[in-house]
């Protein structure tokens, strides 16, 4: 009877975790003119969410329940282990992406300043993006790179518009 109750609890957790994973994979809705700092903020938020979820999964309370279910040879554990692995991967991806995107953070300020001086920062910015593409195990996809370049371009356009309107 205890095993059945705990299996119900784990099934509820499984459903909730699957929902978090599904939502995290959905396409983001962003304004057309959003800059590259939004990319960093997105991954920081995602890192926080998945790290909290991972902390909860690794808590002693959850470990005790899983141990009881292991002793009772519960069939729900296979799904649980798969989800645990998926959450770990998502948390690692977010953490890694934040680390790499922080290397671009020093360019976001000059990129946002209303001055055509941004041109002097472009070669270093592009080199840093290339480094991320070549070394990041998660962020080096065409989807991520396209999104990042789009946001960088948006920021450059906004900066130029602001400069022209002030001048």
From TrEMBL:
Residue ranges annotated for the Dynein heavy chain tail domain, each copy included: 3-165
Any one biological process term the GO annotation gives: microtubule-based movement
Signal sequence residues: none
Pfam families from the UniProt entry: DHC_N1
Cellular compartments per GO CC: axonemal dynein complex
GO MF: dynein intermediate chain binding; dynein light intermediate chain binding
Highest taxon listed in the record's lineage: Eukaryota
Protein name: DYH8 protein
Organism (species): Sinosuthora webbiana
């Amino acid at each position: 009877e205890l095993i059945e109750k705990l299996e119900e609890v784990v099934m509820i957790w499984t459903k909730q975790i699957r929902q978090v994973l599904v939502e995290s994979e959905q396409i983001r809705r962003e304004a057309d003119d959003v800059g590259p700092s939004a990319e960093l903020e997105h991954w920081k938020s995602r890192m926080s969410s998945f790290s909290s979820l991972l902390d909860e999964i690794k808590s002693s309370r959850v470990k005790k329940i899983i141990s009881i279910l292991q002793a009772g040879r519960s069939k729900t554990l296979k799904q649980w282990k798969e989800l645990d692995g998926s959450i770990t991967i998502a948390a690692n991806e977010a953490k890694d992406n934040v680390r790499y995107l922080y290397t671009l953070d020093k360019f976001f300020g000059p990129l946002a300043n209303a001055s055509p001086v941004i041109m002097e920062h472009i070669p270093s910015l592009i080199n840093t993006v290339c480094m991320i593409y070549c070394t990041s195990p998660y962020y080096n996809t065409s989807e991520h790179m396209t999104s990042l370049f789009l946001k960088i371009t948006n920021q450059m356009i906004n900066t130029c518009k602001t400069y022209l309107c002030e001048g």
